[in-house]
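Journal club prep — side note

Before the paper discussion, L.F. wants everyone to see what a predicted structure for a comparable chain looks like in token form. Sequence:
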Amino acid sequence: MLPEERLAALGITLPPPPSAVGAYDPWVRTGNLVLTSGQLPWLDGELAYIGKLGDELIVDKGYQAARLCAINAIAQLKAAADELSRIKRIVRLDGFVHSATGFQSQAQVLDGASELLNEVFGAKGRHTRVALGISAMPLNAAVQLSLTAELAD
């Protein structure tokens, strides 16, 4: 099954890839690699999840925020590759969780993104990952993540 078919089976319609909110590109291709800039949990032009995990938000809300960030990252990959079937492998996910002091469930939050990538891309979605808790986030977003993907020739 193609990634686009898996998205449809999950009931997910990719949004237009979010525009950059600063002086950078939303994605860059170098050789066979595509690197996305940090993706926030945008939904219909609004941040859907704001605040700190372990303070304003619980783990389940963070999981949903990470999943939404991954949907936006997939939209960026589609813009870069034209067709998601050209993705040979998701190489790495770098995730940042807006965390209150003492919050230690960053890995569980970012599973929202990792599990979606595995569902959409199958074995090609398996990736390495960094999961960091940070004390401040652009626009007070709950989660930010970026992807590195390898394209087929």
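L.F.'s comment for the group: Residues 3-11+30-150 form a domain with the 60s Ribosomal Protein L30; Chain: A; fold (CATH 3.30.1330.40). Keep this in mind when we get to the figures.
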